[in-house]
Amino acid sequence: MPVPSTTGQPDDPSRPPAADWFATAAGHALLDSEWPHLQGLLADRPGQAWLWLGPMAARTEGLPGPGLPLRPVPGGWAGPVRCALPLPLANESVAAIVLQHPALAGPDLDLLLSECARVLVPGAALSVYCLNPLSPWRWRWGGGGPGASEPQPWRRRLRAAGLAPDPVSQGIGPRWGVVPDATLQHGPGLRAAWVLRAQKRLVPLTPVRKAVPLRLSAGAPAA
Predict the structure, then answer these.
(1) 7 close to 69: Cβ distance less than 8 angstroms
(2) What span, in angstroms and rounded, lies between the C-alpha atoms of 67 and 70?
(3) DSSP states of 144-156 as a string?
(4) Which of 196, 132, 136, 211 is nearest to 163 (CA)?
(5) 123 φ, ψ to 5°?
(6) What one-character DSSP code corresponds to residue 128?
(7) Structural domain boundaries of the chain?
(8) Buried b (16+ CB within 10 A) or exposed e, 46-65
(9) What's the gap between Cα 206 and its chain centre?
(10) What end-to-end distance do the CA atoms of the chain give, in Å?
(11) Phi–psi pair at 138, nearest 5 degrees
(12) pTM score, whole prediction
């Protein structure tokens, strides 16, 4: 039988295989841990648009509006629209971005980060959630999970995209059991995951190429 998705329905066969891990009990515990914090990030600037890229982007209850939730699918993203990169959004049109477990984005990750930087409003922030490879919880995803990384490589990626990451990430999620834990701690520690915030500066540290007025992909309404 198909693996149930995070919405309780049979899994979409077009979903990346690593995303199936989020339908397990451990995957649910982690996503439920991140959910309250994620809601707060998207509500950071009331009345302004947000972008949420992640495996549980079909979950819409309690989300502030307006916003665009997209989940990874082979070749791009799906949600209210289905698109590939570049993102079908105007420059500096989004006031908050959440990139949840971005290893699911595949080889286009650096392009995705540059696109996130392009669409962010100056002064706004991108927040990244990622599995913590130093946590004892790592045995729960083994080789079938969505990929783990320490925060430092992500700081380099974010800087390369023109963003300014916070000096310290925050740990989130369980340490041992399969029980949601939404509290945050200073640094990843032994927590299952971490979250790192990176801001788009009002004035870039280095000169950047003038942005293209508008870049749209061949997006289409989702079925």
Answers:
(1) no
(2) 10
(3) TSS-B--HHHHHH
(4) 196
(5) 95, -15
(6) E
(7) 17-203
(8) eebbbbbbbbbbbbeeebbe
(9) 26
(10) 23
(11) -65, -25
(12) 0.82
pLDDT tens digits, the chain, 223 residues: what are they?
233 333 333 344 444 556 788 888 999 999 999 999 999 999 888 889 999 999 877 677 778 778 999 998 888 899 999 999 999 999 999 999 999 998 756 668 899 999 999 999 999 999 999 999 999 998 888 766 678 899 999 999 999 999 999 999 999 999 998 999 999 999 999 999 999 999 999 765 555 555 555 555 555 555 4
Both tokens of residue 152? 């430092």
Contact 34, 100 (CB under 8 A): yes
Contact 129, 194 (CB under 8 A): yes
* Class of 17-203 in CATH: alpha beta
Side chain identity at residue 98, one-letter code: V
β partners of residue 51: 68, 97
Question: What sign does the dihedral 121-151-154-42 (CA atoms) show?
Answer: negative
What is the DSSP secondary structure assignment for residue 47, as one 8-state letter? Answer: T
Euclidean distance between CA atoms 71 and 92, whole angstroms: 21
Hey, what are 66's tokens? 């307006």
DSSP letters along 158-197, please?
HHHTT-EE-SS-EEES-SSSSS-----EEB-TT-SEEEEE
How far apart are alpha carbons 114 and 108 in whole angstroms?
10
DSSP-derived secondary structure letter, 37: H
